[in-house]
Design goal:
- By secondary structure, the protein is mainly α.
- The chain has two domains: 101 residues, RNA polymerase sigma factor, region 2, helix turn helix motif (Rna Polymerase Sigma Factor, Chain: A, Orthogonal Bundle); 85 residues, Winged helix-like DNA-binding domain superfamily/Winged helix DNA-binding domain (Arc Repressor Mutant, subunit A), CATH 1.10.10.
- The chain has nine helices and no strands.
């Protein structure tokens, strides 16, 4: 499987085969079908990993690991899914990605490194604007890190992955109502944490 790039393609067109069709094709011996699944979901996985890493390169490496783990377990897992029912590939893949991301964040406290080293200045902005943006990024990243685990997971899946609450609930094994409640509390808590963060120099 080719290495994942940090510049990622758009989602697959609506006319492309469904995840279910690709999973069944892979089980039937079509090796290229798994590659199609990778292309379809690589942007989603990269977005999830980016929330837990300091650099895009780290996110790309973790995304690659997630797909390799999925490939290793694919035949065993796909064969357990009902031949005539849905194949929850995306939810299964997201669980793999989240587990890898959380392990990465715990090892050496990568989140703290991300808070202390914001991204380089954007093109066209002044040094003062870059400093202000960097401080804002540090506040937001630190605030996200301070969220309870479940709230952080729901927020990440909703904001970074763009999933609906039904998909979030399926991915995390919770109810749709619980997903909505956690998102509401996460946003409320995030705003409060950012608002309470003292600015440098005060």
């Amino acid at each position: 499987m080719k290495a994942l790039e940090t510049t990622l393609p758009l989602a697959a067109a609506a006319t492309d085969p469904s995840d279910e069709a690709l999973c069944r094709a892979f089980l039937a011996g079509d090796e290229a079908a798994f590659g199609s699944l990778v292309e379809r979901h690589r942007a989603l996985v990269f977005a999830l990993m980016r929330r837990y890493t300091a650099r895009p390169e780290d996110a790309a490496d973790l995304a690659q690991q997630a797909f390799l783990r999925a490939l290793e377990a694919s035949r065993r897992v796909f064969s357990r899914w009902s031949p005539s029912g849905p194949a929850p590939f995306r939810a299964w893949l997201i669980r793999i990605a989240l587990n890898l991301a959380k392990n990465h964040a715990r090892q050496g406290r990568r989140w703290l490194h991300a808070v202390e080293h914001p991204d380089t200045e954007a093109p066209g902005e002044s040094a003062h604007e870059a400093l202000e943006r960097g401080e804002r990024e540090r506040q937001v990243r630190a605030a996200v890190l301070a969220l309870p685990r479940r709230q952080r997971e729901v927020l990440t899946l909703r904001v970074d992955a763009g999933l609906g609450f039904r998909d979030i609930a399926e991915t995390l094994g919770i109810t749709e109502t619980n997903a909505k409640v956690n998102f509401h509390h996460a946003v409320k808590r995030l705003r409060a944490l950012v608002a309470d963060t003292p600015e440098e120099g005060r």
